[in-house]
Amino acid sequence: MTDRTVFRQTTMADRMTPEQRHHCMSSIRGRDTRPELAVRRSLFAEGFRYRLNVKALPGTPDIVLHRYHTVIFVNGCFWHGHKGCRHFVLPRTNRQFWEDKIRRNRRRDNAVYARLEALGWKIIVVWECELEKDAAVLKELPSRIRRLSAEYDKEASERRRLRNIRKEEKMAAAARHSRIEEEVSSRYRIPRSVVKVSEESD
């Protein structure tokens, strides 16, 4: 399951001029943002070790904790369309462009989360605004990671149990088939030509 929270969308006035908006958007960093650094420092201080921006995984997660089979996305509220957040304010200028862009970003995010979950990864999404309010989000991260890791271990154990059941059923079916062939061979004399045809068809 994805550890995410959904909020209602609110609207606020966009007080920036087109020039200010362009400068603001062009100066936003894609990696090593202040929220990402805050999350990394907090995890490292708690003893967690991780990898960053693993391209082999869908969506190139910001933080990957292989030991806990958990990934963390630190999302900017505007670019990922955080509903109900004061940072998610669509610009007045070129509004249709931004609506389409944020819609695509949300759709891409949901597709990435679904692919990761299908691969068995646990997901935590930390929003930029959550880190501004207080330190509660960072304090809760270790327990959230360990809880998701425990869920993964439980699910992995169940998968192994089911695989073993299927393996045992397959072996039992093969054994039954072998016993039937032995019984038929002991009771009836099958012409060599028939046996040969049967072997070739297999």
Structural summary, described in words:
The chain is elongated, with a radius of gyration of 28 Å. It contains 6 helices and 5 strands, in the order βααβββαβααα. α2 crosses α5 (136-187). The chain folds into 2 domains: 2-156, VSR Endonuclease (Endonuclease, Chain A, 3-Layer(aba) Sandwich), CATH 3.40.960; 163-201. Strands 1-5-4-3-2 form a 5-stranded mixed β-sheet, with helices on both faces. It has helices at residues 18-26, 34-45, 95-118, 128-133, 136-187, 192-201; strands spanning 2-3, 51-52, 63-65, 70-75, 122-127. α3 links the parallel β4 (70-75) and β5 (122-127). The protein is an alpha/beta fold and 202 residues long. The longest helix is centred in the last third of the chain and has 52 residues, at 136-187. The protein starts with a strand and ends with a helix. Helix content is 56%, strand content 9%.
Biggest sheet character: 5 strands, mixed
CATH homology superfamily name of the largest domain: VSR Endonuclease
Give the termini separation.
Answer: 44 Å
User: What is Rg?
Assistant: 28 Å
> What kind of oligomer do you see?
single chain
Low-confidence stretches: 4-14, 21-29
| Number of helices, where a helix is a run of at least 4 consecutive DSSP H or I residues | 6
Give the neighbour order of strands across the main sheet: 1-5-4-3-2
Number of strands: 5
